[in-house]
């Protein structure tokens, strides 16, 4: 699965300018997470058209990066997130960040994560029977 990361200034309206541009480009946001530092923030998004989103946002002056992330489908049941994290820990996989999205039209929520070794993480999760989601399944 692809994610876009957009660098934004920490000032009123900066996140809205990103979402407004994506709305203009008719790109649907599936998940969003933000991280801030004193001067700027990083807005991470899973969208239905990541390459087009990058191109459009770049044309509007934003600094954008596209990167691979893992989408792991988890049933909305107690302990499922903990179980997935245990699988990764047992596989000696470090997680850089994680966030979720639930708007999937009557389908299970998805945890989005980035690790120090995405290929190994994918293999470990698949072997444990966790359903992985790619861009076409959003």
What is the strand tally? Answer: 8
Radius of gyration: 16 Å
What is the total domain count?
2
Instruction: Identify the CATH architecture of the largest domain.
Output: 2-Layer Sandwich
The class by helix and strand makeup works out as alpha+beta
Beta percentage is 35-45%
On the 0 to 100 scale, the average pLDDT is 89
Largest sheet report: 4 strands, antiparallel
Cα(first) to Cα(last) distance is 9 Å
Outline, from the CA principal axes?
globular
The side-by-side strand order for the widest beta sheet comes to 2-3-1-4
- CATH top level assignment of the largest domain: Alpha Beta
CATH superfamily of the largest domain: VC0802-like
Helical content (DSSP H or I, runs of 4+) = 25-40%
Determine the CATH topology of the largest domain.
Answer: VC0802-like
Unreliably modeled segments: none
Number of helices: 4
What letter string, H or E per element, gives the SSE order? EHEEHEEHEEHE
InterPro entries: ACT-like_dom_sf (IPR045865), ACT_dom (IPR002912), ACT_dom_pair (IPR045739)
Protein name: ACT domain-containing protein
Domain ACT: 3-92
